[in-house]
Amino acid sequence: MRFEARILPDAAVPSRIRPWSLHRIVTIVPVAVGVMLCATVAAIIVLNARIAIDEETSSAFRTAQATVAVRMPPRFAGQDTMGQAMQLAAEIDALRHLSASVTDNHGHPVTPHAEGAALTEDQAPGWFSDLMRPELRSDRVPISHYPNVLGWLVIQTDPADEIAEVWEDFRIIMPLLALTCAALVGMSMGFSRLILRRLRAIQEALGAMRQGDLDRRAPPDRLAEFAALANGVNALADHLTSQRAENRQLQARLLTLSETERAKIASDLHDDMGPQLFALNAALSQARAAAREVSGPGSAQLDDALRAILVHAGAVRDSARTAINDLRPMLMGHGSLPELLGELVAEFAEIAPDVAIDLDCDGRIAASEPAETAIYRFVRESLLNAVRHGKARRIRIEMRRTQDQIVTQLRDDGRGPSGRGSAGGHGLAGIRDRARALGAAFDPPRRVGAETVTELRMPHR
Ligand SMILES: Nc1ncnc2c1ncn2[C@@H]1O[C@H](COP(=O)(O)OP(=O)(O)OP(=O)(O)O)[C@@H](O)[C@H]1O
Ligand SMILES: [Mg+2]
């Protein structure tokens, strides 16, 4: 599993600051410290041991030189000088840190060299011996029997046994140290995974909340610090949820107030202007009937004037109808939502006869008045946009009821939104505001294949 230490990737981190990966730091730093520690310990062991070996072999060498000076057999004693020298060489060779041998005048060994030293040196690998071995010292003392020189007693320092001892310690200490460092690195990596897993859970919860899912909560945690963090995030989500509910209530209240105001204006127009326009029409019809009875030179002009007044009165009635319809669609004809949509489609067919509009909806669909008004306005604005902006030739309106929503969808074969949007357009913004206030979801026009699709999902009330 990979862990990313970068929290909230698209959060507001200034672009100049490149965040560091916690996981990487927690991995690299202990590894570097471990390697440095091992290297330092190894260097200290080697340096100290090297100095100690040098001192010990030098001291043993000086002692051996003094011993040879004292015990070397005298030249005229008539004794077995060579034998005694060989005995002395064997004794020195048996000492630690030294080797001794007797050679003839041509440098060929007369006594076999002790084998113990060779065996112990084998125990340390060559590179280690090379690192530890101090400068070798040697001395040759003549073995003479007057007047002849019989051979030479050769003494030299031999640090092999000491090196082997240091190697024994070294090969125990270093693997132990390396294992300890590896364990520490493993622990710190495990710890970082633990932290990052928790941070990731909180990050996921925050991401979901940012996407609008305010029911999502950060998981509880047994570590006090993360529990506090999760509690803080959850408290923030609670606060946002209550703010959102309050906001919705306010928007709904605003919408209701504005719709109530519009409804009142529409009712006043409808109730005051309607009867008066009706009376005006009736009076005009009577006046035209009476004018037809009148004969004389001005009767034809009177009839023309009355007909013109009738046409204007009709235009005023249509304008009033349109205004009322715009202010409060549900008032018009007191029909159901599907019926009103049918009327709307018929009106559009008159305005734009080249556009084929299909309406497919269940005639029994009904909702609260604000919801129905919002759906009606959505369909009207979307139709208008499809014709005006998309230059659509075919529009399909579908309205169906699901378990908890009324889904209204418009599909048109127009050229679709340009992507730049409209700076001064109010249509989509109005739909969005009304949808938000009523808890509905609005998908603005988008291309799906060769069609432009717009959708509103209104919850049942
Ligand atoms: N069906 C559609 N086909 C193509 N473009 C669309 C469609 N619906 C909306 N648009 C694009 O979206 C923009 C915004 O639409 P909106 O209804 O908000 O504003 P408007 O129609 O330009 O102005 P207003 O509705 O205030 O008269 C439009 O200008 C248009 O570019
Ligand atoms: Mg518009």
TrEMBL record:
<dbReference type="GO" id="GO:0016020">
    <property type="term" value="C:membrane"/>
</dbReference>
<keyword id="KW-0067">ATP-binding</keyword>
<keyword id="KW-1133">Transmembrane helix</keyword>
<dbReference type="InterPro" id="IPR036890">
    <property type="entry name" value="HATPase_C_sf"/>
</dbReference>
<dbReference type="InterPro" id="IPR003660">
    <property type="entry name" value="HAMP_dom"/>
</dbReference>
<dbReference type="InterPro" id="IPR011712">
    <property type="entry name" value="Sig_transdc_His_kin_sub3_dim/P"/>
</dbReference>
<dbReference type="Pfam" id="PF07730">
    <property type="entry name" value="HisKA_3"/>
</dbReference>
<dbReference type="GO" id="GO:0046983">
    <property type="term" value="F:protein dimerization activity"/>
</dbReference>
<dbReference type="GO" id="GO:0005524">
    <property type="term" value="F:ATP binding"/>
</dbReference>
<feature type="transmembrane region" description="Helical">
    <location>
        <begin position="172"/>
        <end position="196"/>
    </location>
</feature>
<protein>
    <recommendedName>
        <fullName>histidine kinase</fullName>
        <ecNumber>2.7.13.3</ecNumber>
    </recommendedName>
</protein>
<keyword id="KW-0418">Kinase</keyword>
<keyword id="KW-0472">Membrane</keyword>
<keyword id="KW-0547">Nucleotide-binding</keyword>
<feature type="coiled-coil region">
    <location>
        <begin position="233"/>
        <end position="260"/>
    </location>
</feature>
<keyword id="KW-0597">Phosphoprotein</keyword>
<dbReference type="InterPro" id="IPR050482">
    <property type="entry name" value="Sensor_HK_TwoCompSys"/>
</dbReference>
<dbReference type="InterPro" id="IPR032244">
    <property type="entry name" value="LapD_MoxY_N"/>
</dbReference>
<keyword id="KW-0808">Transferase</keyword>
<dbReference type="Pfam" id="PF16448">
    <property type="entry name" value="LapD_MoxY_N"/>
</dbReference>
<feature type="transmembrane region" description="Helical">
    <location>
        <begin position="25"/>
        <end position="47"/>
    </location>
</feature>
<feature type="domain" description="HAMP">
    <location>
        <begin position="193"/>
        <end position="245"/>
    </location>
</feature>
<keyword id="KW-0902">Two-component regulatory system</keyword>
<dbReference type="Pfam" id="PF00672">
    <property type="entry name" value="HAMP"/>
</dbReference>
<keyword id="KW-0812">Transmembrane</keyword>
<dbReference type="GO" id="GO:0000155">
    <property type="term" value="F:phosphorelay sensor kinase activity"/>
</dbReference>
<keyword id="KW-0175">Coiled coil</keyword>
